[in-house]
Amino acid sequence: MTSPDRKDTWGIRIRVPATTANLGAAFDAVGLALQLYLTVEVRALDAGPSRLEFRGEGEGCVPADSTNLIWRVMQRVADRHERKLPSFSMEVDNEIPITKGLGSSATACVSAAAAADFLCGLRLQREDLLAAAADEEGHPDNVAPALYGGLVASICAEKILCSRCEFPASWTIVAVTPDLELATSEARSVLPQQVPFRDAVFNVQRAAFLMAQVVQGRREGLRQAMADRLHQPYRSALVPGLKEILDLEDHEGLIGVALSGAGSTVIAFADANAAEIGDRIAAIFERHGLSSTVRLLKADNLGLVIEEST
């Protein structure tokens, strides 16, 4: 999908969904788009300095000048295409917690690539936006579902390859976010350089089974399929209560539990009693001295949406 021509519209509104990645066993390979959004309205200005207004999650902490991640990525995308980024005004409304494992940086990169495409008249296709945003993010597992919606498996080869399916509409994603910031760099620093062969096989089996079941909308075995040996055991020390949450006893409606991305948010899939499951996870965080926010979400099967704004 190409962006609207600047000559035909005063501006555009860009909406990008939050994402959760890994889903347990599918480490650095699978992500799911969620109905929680970053919305960016951008307009080209005839003259004057560019300006950015930021509202919502992160307001007061996220810079609203040229050091803002969206602004910086826009500039880099324009530079890469040897274009001058024109003066613009931008209004950002953010529902996604910052540095909490729900793909906030990926949504910023996707929105920035789409905004630069519009402002510079690049006419990029979705695969071009994917490459630009993944290059900034460093990996495609959050960027791909943010662009395409649904559940997306991706690999990096000569170009990024993606396989997408819709997530069951009847399932709820219970996202419980503790009051704990966890930088991705810190979460990656605790991972080992090598893992036992049996642990690699353990994850490959479960990641394959996970995708096969979700494609069919089947819940059987997903609790076991979302178990992991490559990242969650090593990150448990960084998130108080995480081990207890991953070992949460079965509850009617609970399909599976995992750390969302690098954390600190934890997700659970449920087809009943979602609020009760969220409260149980929040109670574990509370016992470890952490307040938390429970969000009951549905999967976003649309991904990036660009609309004209007059």
Would you kindly provide a written description of the structure presented here, covering whatever features stand out?
The structure is a single chain. The chain is α+β, with helices and mostly antiparallel strands. The protein folds into two domains: 6-166 and 299-309, Ribosomal Protein S5, domain 2 (2-Layer Sandwich), CATH 3.30.230; 172-297, GHMP kinase, C-terminal domain (Alpha-Beta Plaits, 2-Layer Sandwich), CATH 3.30.70. 32% of the residues lie in helices and 26% in strands. It has helices at residues 69-80, 104-120, 126-137, 143-148, 184-189, 197-216, 222-225, 232-235, 242-246, 274-287; strands at residues 11-21, 30-44, 51-56, 88-94, 151-156, 160-165, 172-178, 254-259, 266-270, 292-297, 305-309. The strands form two sheets. Strands 1, 2, 3, 4, 5, 6 and 11 form a seven-stranded mixed sheet that branches. It has a four-stranded antiparallel sheet with strand order 8-9-7-10. β1 and β2 (30-44) form a beta hairpin. It is globular, with a radius of gyration of 19 Å. The two termini are 20 Å apart.
Shape: globular
Secondary structure tally: strands: 11
CATH class of the largest domain equals: Alpha Beta
CATH architecture of the largest domain: 2-Layer Sandwich
Percent range for helical residues? Answer: 25-40%
Strand pairing plus helix content: what structural class?
A: alpha+beta
